[in-house]
Write a structure and sequence with these properties.
It is a single chain. With about 325 residues, the protein is an all-alpha fold. It contains 17 helices and two strands. The chain has helices at about 5-10, 10-25, 30-40, 50-60, 65-90, 100-105, 105-125, 130-150, 160-170, 170-185, 190-215, 230, 240-245, 250-260, 265-280, 280-300, 305-320; strands at about 95, 95-100. A two-stranded antiparallel ribbon has the order 1-2. α4 (about 50-60) packs antiparallel against α17 (about 305-320). It is globular, with a radius of gyration of 20 Å. The two termini are about 20 Å apart. The mean pLDDT is about 95.
Length: about 325
């Protein structure tokens, strides 16, 4: 079995049920809304976060209706945030495919994102568990706050890894943390296990984002974005932060600040990327990513079944080995 097959193996039946319920949650009689939703569903990824919710629920009990509703709610909130983020970032691509705002327009994108958000909250309510409603609401706050921190950081003159990880925790890691935590809450597991699940998901999410940031240093149609795309949006990520803080090269610091101000040319960004790669920025970030992978596996209980241990190990290995 490949990685994805290993991940899905313990939840193969339940994952098919989830996909059916997810599709049913997005039915609409409005022609334009239905068209945009079909477009979004065509671009859906592998749904890693719902898989994590189902796996964590199975780790602690049997998957129930509230597990499905929680997984749907979180996936819809995630999808809504991506639709809105593309408007904020003025992106015309998402993982190599046209974004909603590129095909339609910003007005449609914002309104459809709002619809997805409202549908997310409806599914959170259907769990019948106030803790899951609170979890989804808190995630929405974290995603928005993380985006705001990232926007304001473009004016910073230092290169803080602490701020970088703060943004990750409130955005990518919060999604994985909530997905893992929701699964455990849905089967009414212990407070201790809920806490461990949230930490497990957070550690995976941090590794996931570091991998995404490494992609930005390589040109590949599979990845779905051109080299330096983050930098064109004024974002400096872990490989660059490490090199800048380690070597303190004044000319490169000036160039990095220019990138943040959105004043750098494509040639200057390409030069900066090569500098970071030559100074072991990618190697540093990759090692940090692997460290988070190992920390995540250490969180899992010793009593875990072999099947679930294989699935969850494959899950995080897929995160750090993926090609897009």
């Amino acid at each position: 079995m490949n990685r994805l097959e290993q991940i899905k193996h313990p939840i193969s039946t339940e994952f098919e049920v989830f996909k059916q319920k997810f599709d049913a949650s997005l039915q609409s009689s409005n022609p334009l809304l239905s068209e945009v939703i079909r477009f979004i569903k065509q671009r859906n990824g592998k749904m890693m976060r719902p898989m994590l919710t189902l796996l964590m629920a199975k780790l602690c009990g049997e998957i129930v209706d509230s597990t499905y509703y929680a997984a749907i709610s979180l996936e819809l909130l995630h999808t809504a945030s991506l639709v809105h983020d593309d408007v904020v970032d003025e992106s015309d691509k998402r993982r190599g495919q046209s974004s909603v705002n590129a095909v339609y327009d910003n007005k449609v994108s914002v309104l459809v994102g709002d619809y997805l958000l409202a549908t997310s909250l409806t599914n959170a309510a259907l769990t019948g568990d106030i803790r899951l409603v609170e979890l989804v609401s808190r995630l929405g706050q974290n995603l928005s706050e993380g985006e705001i921190i990232q926007l304001t950081n473009t004016n910073a003159t230092d290169f803080s890894e602490e701020v970088y990880f703060d943004v990750i925790r409130k955005k990518t890691a919060a999604l994985f943390s909530s997905a893992a935590e929701a699964g455990v809450i849905s089967v009414r597991s212990s407070d201790e296990m809920i806490e461990k699940a949230a930490l497990f998901g957070e550690l995976i999410g941090i590794a996931f984002q570091i991998k995404d940031d490494i992609f930005d240093y390589y040109s590949s149609e599979e990845v779905g974005k051109p080299t330096g795309n983050d930098m064109r949006e004024g974002k400096l990520t872990l490989p660059a932060l490490y090199v800048l803080n380690t070597l303190k090269d004044e000319s490169m610091i000036d160039l990095a600040l220019k990138i943040r101000r959105l004043e750098a040319t494509d040639e200057e960004i390409a030069h900066f990327i090569e500098y970071v790669k030559q100074q072991d920025g990618i190697e540093y970030a990759s090692q940090v990513m692997v460290d988070y992978r190992n920390k995540a596996l250490d969180v899992l209980p010793e009593s875990i079944s072999k099947e679930l241990k294989t699935a969850l190990t494959s899950f995080i290995d897929y995160v750090i080995e993926r090609k897009k």
